[in-house]
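Q: Hi! First time doing this. I have a protein sequence and I read that you can turn it into a structure. Is that right? Here it is:
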Amino acid sequence: MNEKQKIEGVDNKELKAFVAIIAVLIILLLFEMFFYKGRPEVAEEAAKTEEMLQEMQNTTVEAEEKTVYKALNNIVDMMNRKEYQSLYEMLKDDYKNYYFRDFESFKKFVEIYAGQEYSPKYGSYYRDENMYYIMVEFLKSKYTREDLLNEMPVKVDTIVLEEQEDKSFKFAMNGFVENIIHNSSKTVDGITFTLQNSVRNTETMKTSVIVTNNSEKSLSLSTSNVNPDILGSTTAKLSVTSSIHLEPGESEIISIEYYFQYNSNKELKGIRITGLSFADGTKIEDVYLPN
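A: Yes, that's right. Below is the predicted 3D structure, encoded as structure tokens:
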């Protein structure tokens, strides 16, 4: 055996010894890991850690809910207090540009909303990145006979909150605006009549007229004064009849339901309001509100 073969033999022995040592260390390490993991105190510590993480997650969700519902309450309170300018600045830009021509049209919307004295009831919300969608039932502080007969809230809507970079919110109330602002309206003798969107199913049609008394006289009217203009017919059966009395400055919604034969193709063209007079007997001009 020459010198070179002797050196290679020594090197091979050292390499084999080194590999054997590494293998033993790996086996010991794996044994320690599995043994250590199975010890009761380690399992208990892992459970505590998982519990702490869950508590942290729950705390985060609760904090988010608190922030969202606080923002909602703030918006509703501002609406009832008629804080026009502050609310106008909080509107989502796309929503503002689509629904409101100018600041004055938004003021009209707030006045209608505040005049109803709504009390909101919030449902759960859905989050999509920085957008929160919350279903809201708007309940009146005082119920009319129609409200009780229908056994349903006056208005159901979805409020949209958009979280900004500074953690403030902008908002939208699409359904409420669609049903109140985007409809025909007319004022005669200081009385403003606004027709809301009608809802039609196979046998009935529901609609509402908002009456606001901006005059200096008392006004009484009933659903018998509100007559439908039906395409192909001039008559329809009122399922509910009621009367209201409005003092100067007061506003009320007259809810009306018309009954049709099953699968009728008749459509509502508009509403005629006739035969009105003030409490002192002064007659009021007839009004037609196209649908």
